[in-house]
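Suppose a colleague, Dr. K., hands you the sequence of a protein chain of 614 amino acids and asks what its three-dimensional shape might be. Before reaching for any lab equipment, you can write down a predicted structure in token form. Begin with the sequence itself:
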Amino acid sequence: MKMKTAILLVSANSLPIAQTICRELTESTIYTTTELKGCEQIENLAHFVKEEFHHFNAFIFIGAMGICVRSIAPCLEDKHTDPAVINVDSTGRYVVSVLSGHVGGANELTQHVASVLGAEAVVTTQSDNHGLWALDTLAKKQNWTTSISGDSMNHIITAFVNGQPTALLLDIKDSGTQYLEQTCPDHVTIFYHFNDIVQEDYQLILAVTPFVYSSTIPMLSYHPRVMHLGIGCRKNCLSDGISAYIKNELLNHRVSPLSVASISTIELKKEEPLINDLKIQFPHTLLHIYSADELKGIEVPNPSERVFEATGVYGVAEASALKSAADGLLVIEKEKGMLSENNNFTFALALDRRVLRGGHIEIVGAGPGDPELVSVRGQRMLKEADLILYAGSLVPRELTLCAKVGATVRSSASMSLEEQFALMKSFYDKELFTVRLHTGDPCIYGAIQEQMAFFDKHGMSYHITPGISSFQAAAAALQSQFTIPEKVQTIILTRGEGRTPMPEREKLHLLARSQSTMCIFLSASVIDQVQEELLQHYPPTTPVAACYHLTWKDERIFRGELKELANIVKDNGLTLTTMIVVGEAIDNRKGLSHLYSSKFTHLFRQSEEDKNKV
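The predicted structure, expressed as tokens, is then:
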């Protein structure tokens, strides 16, 4: 957390506590009435707080709570403007959130400082203690906006923290809505369509939506910036009243102006007064200026020959809106306006494709085999998936045992690529969530290129979650650092030439010239050829390791020298799931890093010195 922070030290005995906090909070300064090395001396604690109360984001008192309370009491104004205040007792045992818990960030700072000191965090805010969302800061944390504040917000917060039945509407999907879905309290029911909410069953509606809805019960709407406004106009179009007109038209289409993320037009119009005025009237928006070539290939529902003659594209407003929205959904097709003579303008609005709800495919790296080596994100994806399609010949089924009740779990081992595509698309077309689970990291020999080409062809939403590769598992199992100072600084990931031809420039004997640490995948079946090529440049006594089923329950590792490699693999019946490691880095303890030498100046320390010079 980067906050300009004043650490107020009451007693010199607690200086080590203050120094520990100061080292962790880089924008902090220690203040004390006593002359102490490394501290700023002040005459009076209460006077300092009064004069500087709004010059800091946070105050950390170290001492008795009473001193903290009496010092800040005369300065209190409003929770939306007051800084965060926390109090640490003189022994560093307790860290208490005192003021501006949510809005000012005191609760988060309390947790941070408590973790630094190994202390107990004391937070009395009801929502925090019950693991509930902080509704008044949720918009800021998730980069949403909301027009509700003051008493209305307080009434909604009270109903929510008191456990009133609440409907949660999620019109779009982003990292914020994923967080809400994962942490949803028991008294909240999730909906994806407003009309599905039976309002008489609830006391409150929370909504993450770019739209505006009418509700018979209290409703708090968070508006994500996911709408893209495309603009076209005549030359030297007078902008008077147009911004207000467009905002009103958005509301007529039930779209919140707060959800506009960008304003877009063609290069020909970039100096128009209307564009500059819209940028001012829609603050926090991006401005996208596109060339005619960038907009040419975009199909628009309302093409105009006259516009094409003037600009080279068939619709400036629609094309630029769709371009900014990554070819998303056109919420408002081209509308024409003219508020005064010869001041024609057009506008269109598109919803970003990347936030549209619907089918999705997550390509997940399973890691080398141990279920505990899947990333936190990967495991969450597996728990949420409606379909898990895993590479059964390479990925242990144990990795799929966390699937939710009712999920479909299939192995792709006996399926053709076409069958895999058909299965994934059938779930996708039902707007369901698929995890395609690959061994190791899917980007290394993961065979995902054909799949991504298929997804691209059909306009399907997909994303890649990386995984731990078997070469990393090999380094861990061998207890070896694969890069040794002044010895080897390169790791080569490659394979022997089998059914898949190797590019001529990547033949093993050419790569072996560097004598780098080499990790060779999928090559147990051509081990004689691998050994022969490596021996052209590596000494026969170069350390090697054949690692079978790394991190699996039946893991086996065989060490030796390069001249013995083929025999090691064949004598032990090792198969395709074997990682071959070659190089002096194996078991090397001779090359020591200079990174932590007393002569080395750490970047952090150096940056602090540079800052002090300024």
